[in-house]
Design a protein that fits this description.
The structure holds 2 protein chains of 2 kinds. By secondary structure, chain A is mainly alpha-helical. Chain A has 2 domains: about 100 residues, D-Maltodextrin-Binding Protein, domain 2, CATH 3.40.190; about 250 residues, no CATH class. Chain A has a 4-stranded mixed beta sheet, sandwiched between helices. A two-stranded antiparallel ribbon of chain A has the order 5-6. In chain A, helix 8 packs across helix 10, helix 12 runs antiparallel to helix 15 and helix 12 packs parallel to helix 16. Chain A is elongated and about 90 Å long. Chain B is about 35% helix and about 30% strand. Chain B has a 6-stranded mixed beta sheet with strand order 6-7-8-3-9-10, sandwiched between helices. Chain B has a 4-stranded antiparallel beta sheet with strand order 2-1-4-5, covered by helices on one side. In chain B, strands 12-13-11-14 form a 4-stranded antiparallel beta sheet, with helices on one face. In chain B, a hairpin with a 2-residue loop joins strand 12 and strand 13. Chain B is globular, with a radius of gyration of 23 Å. Chain B starts with a strand and ends with a helix. At the A-B interface, helix 1 and helix 9 of A face helix 3 of B.
Chain lengths: ~425, ~300
């Protein structure tokens, strides 16, 4: 191994990509895209959402309207004597969002209540009206019939589940739902990194082959140096990109979120509420240093393993069109763990979760997700790291054998059988 | 003392024997031609000399040492399949490729500057390769081959795809390098392009070196057996000649190889009776003729064996 040459190769792979338009554009657009993913729902609930929906309740049965107004005074207005025709025209002209006529038959269940509305507000609006109505009718019935106050209070009690995660270091008062979000984010982040940077390597190899520069390169450096230089150069590029994103996203959440809350604040109480909850969503829950270290470790090892595979595929392909068929076998082990992700995070201690997360090609996605949502025994987390390192070394050896033959094969697409033969060539 | 020496070199690709026990040596300061039809094993042999691939059997030495990482840096290689990084600037690209051949950054820069000037290409240094015309790209490719000032140059089908101006430029540079004492290997199937340039040849067919030696010796061994005829008139008499093979024929020109002891006088008589002769010459065969007959005989022999 000639380190001077290796360094030259890494530098070229890194710098030419760093200066490319694709890199600059994707680096800028990705945080904007992520920000948009948070902002759009907030803006939706604010401007198009339920907070401004006004529903007139015409209560012929009595009792139900009061309960509804109690549930959400901003939405429901009790107008006992409004005529249906007037209300219809008000809905058409957009003065009110909708109305419901409540008859005694609705209350005793022999008739279905009807919400007449403009069609705006979407599913969240109709869903919340449905659940409000259910609560209100139930409460109205409870107060009419002479039931035991104990039963009444049982019925009225709504349950808010609070969650605590218990670890060796003590009880953590934390929202475990957020841990799922963290686990998913980490797993999907690694998944995307393996795909994006892996195919970047693959395209780099194909470009060298189709432009025929590879013959010059092969007479100047060892194939292994070329391969390793590419893997490390693109890896450094990926690290740079993620660093830029982490810095810019944490900057946005620290300085941007209060600004958003401020900008939206004061319009209506529910707008502030939703903005506040959005603010909470933007604030990452506390993530231990250990998890971060493992995330970086899994990120790097996942990238390394798949980059070796993608490089081998690139060297075997003769043109971009061959790629689809040849990448198929290596995309399977990336996609499978994404399919298992839900069941593994739901049941992180199950045999299925333990076994699949220990499979080296699955570990980067599944083990980190398990670690985020639960405490994984050290032998499993460290064991999977060791297995991944061994797998990487094996794959790198295999890949370099395919690569050194593949880069010099022009003009035909090899079969998998032929590629297997290349491994045994001198 | 030979500078490159191949001994019983054999290379398999799977079960296919691409190079079959080839031995030859190249003397320093000379131009050596590896000739042969497509698929004869020329490029496979060159790749092994370049240490891009390694032989399955036999040995290759350069200046007495087995080929390896070090010998790579003493070779300038112009592959048959040429290419550059399209999205890199000319200057950056040259610097990268020349440094990979072991030159320091300062030396590389100096040499690149000199050659860009020589080829009137200094203005292109900040252009991307994909902005250059094909002819311009070829010039950059030459510079990649020679800028690290190696002792040995290997050109695989150097003139294929070159425009006449670049062809002349390359010939000039090659002669200049030879005069400086550098060693040059050509691989080609276009005989007429190397005939005036090669000192020694090895003729490849089906993975074997079937004929080799000094070009002048090889030609002499075939003897004077070719008639060059230029004439005015009806050329149909040529079709009636027996025991000859006609190469390079056009309306008033023919290169006629005499077979089975046919005398040149027979041809002359026939020609005098039929056309007005402008030129009649009795010469050694052209390299092309040697190539065709040797490869042809070799193939016939192989087919009979097979």
């Amino acid at each position: 191994m000639n380190l001077t040459k290796l360094f030259l190769i890494i530098k070229r792979e890194y710098l030419t990509r760093l200066k490319s338009k694709t890199f600059i554009i994707s680096t800028i657009l990705a945080p904007i895209f992520i920000l948009a993913m948070f902002l759009v729902p907030i803006l939706m609930t604010n401007f198009g959402g339920s907070s401004n929906e006004q529903v007139i309740i015409v209560d012929h049965a009595g009792g139900v309207a009061n309960h509804l107004v109690k549930l959400n005074p901003n939405r429901y207005i009790n107008e006992k004597y409004a005529s249906v025709d007037t209300l219809r025209s008000e809905v058409i002209h957009g003065q009110i969002s909708g109305f419901i006529v409540i008859t005694p038959k609705v209350v005793n269940g022999s008739e279905k209540p009807e919400l007449v509305y403009s069609g705006n507000g979407g599913i969240t609006f109709t869903q919340s009206v449905r659940s409000d109505l259910q609560t209100a009718i139930r409460d109205a019935l409870l107060s009419k019939t002479n039931v035991n106050p104990d039963v009444k209070s049982i019925m009225e009690r709504s349950i808010h589940l609070q969650t605590k995660k218990l670890t060796k270091s003590g009880e953590e008062k934390q929202n475990t739902d957020m841990l799922f979000v963290v686990g998913y984010f980490m797993a999907i982040g690694i998944y995307m990194a393996m795909f994006i940077y892996g195919s970047l390597i693959m395209r780099g190899v194909i470009e060298e082959k189709t432009s025929r520069i590879i013959e010059i390169m092969a007479s100047s450096a060892k194939p292994f140096e070329l391969l390793l230089g590419k893997v490390l150069g693109v890896g450094a590029l990926g690290a740079t990109q993620f660093l830029i994103w982490v810095v810019s996203i944490s900057g946005i959440t620290t300085f941007g979120a209060p600004f958003i809350v401020h900008a939206l604040g004061g319009k209506s109480t529910s707008a502030v509420q939703s903005a506040n909850s959005a603010n909470m969503a933007l604030q990452m829950p506390h993530i231990g240093a250990g998890l971060w270290i493992f995330f970086i470790l899994f990120f790097v090892l996942g990238y390394l393993m798949y980059s070796a595979l993608f490089a081998a595929v690139g060297s075997a392909a003769d043109s971009e069109t061959d790629v689809q068929q040849l990448t198929f076998p290596i995309t399977i082990p990336i996609i499978l763990p994404i399919m298992f992700l839900t069941s593994v995070t739901a049941n992180p201690g199950s045999t299925f979760a333990v076994v699949t997360s220990m499979i080296p090609l699955f570990s980067p996605i599944l083990m980190i997700a398990r670690m985020a949502v639960s405490s994984v025994p050290l032998w499993q987390s460290l064991g999977s790291v060791v297995l991944m390192i061994l797998t990487f070394l094996g794959l790198m050896w295999l890949s370099s054998r395919v690569y050194r033959v593949g880069i010099l094969m022009y003009g035909k697409k090899p079969s998998f059988k032929e590629i297997a033969k290349w491994i045994r060539y001198n | 003392m030979e500078i490159i020496d191949l001994k019983n070199v054999t290379k398999f690709y799977g079960n296919f024997k691409a190079v079959d026990s080839v031995s030859f040596s190249v003397e320093p300061g000379r131009i050596f031609g590896i000739l042969g039809p497509n698929g004869a094993g020329k490029t496979s042999t060159i790749r092994m000399i370049n240490y891009i691939t390694v032989p399955d059997q036999g040995s290759i030495t350069i200046e007495g040492k087995p080929v390896g990482r070090e010998s790579q840096e003493h070779i300038g290689y112009l592959p048959e399949e040429r290419g550059l990084y399209k999205k890199m600037k000319v200057g950056e690209q040259l610097l990268y490729l020349v440094q990979l051949k072991g030159l320091s950054k300062a030396d590389a820069k100096r040499s690149i500057k000199y050659w860009l000037g020589r080829f009137e290409a200094s203005d292109w240094i900040n252009k991307h390769v994909h902005e250059l015309s094909k002819g311009m790209q070829q010039k950059i490719q030459f510079i990649v081959t020679i800028a690290h000032d190696p002792d040995i140059y290997i050109f695989d089908e150097p003139f294929s795809g070159l425009d006449p101006i670049n062809s002349e430029l390359l010939k000039k540079v090659i002669i200049e390098l030879r005069d400086k004492g550098k060693t040059i290997i050509f691989a080609t199937h276009r005989m007429e392009q190397v005939e005036q340039m090669c000192d020694d040849i090895a003729l490849f067919n089906r993975g074997k070196a079937i004929l080799q030696g000094k070009l002048s010796d090889v030609k002499r061994s075939f003897g004077r057996n070719t008639v060059i005829l230029e004439f005015d008139g009806d050329a149909s008499f040529i079709d009636e000649l027996e025991n000859v093979r006609v190469n390079n024929r056009s309306t008033n020109f023919a290169e006629i190889r005499l077979l089975n002891g046919t005398s040149e006088q027979t041809i002359l008589e026939k020609a005098v009776n039929n056309v007005k002769i402008r030129k009649f010459e009795f010469v050694q065969p052209s390299l092309n003729e040697i190539f065709i007959s040797t490869v042809g005989e070799d193939n016939i022999k192989n087919n009979q064996l097979g």
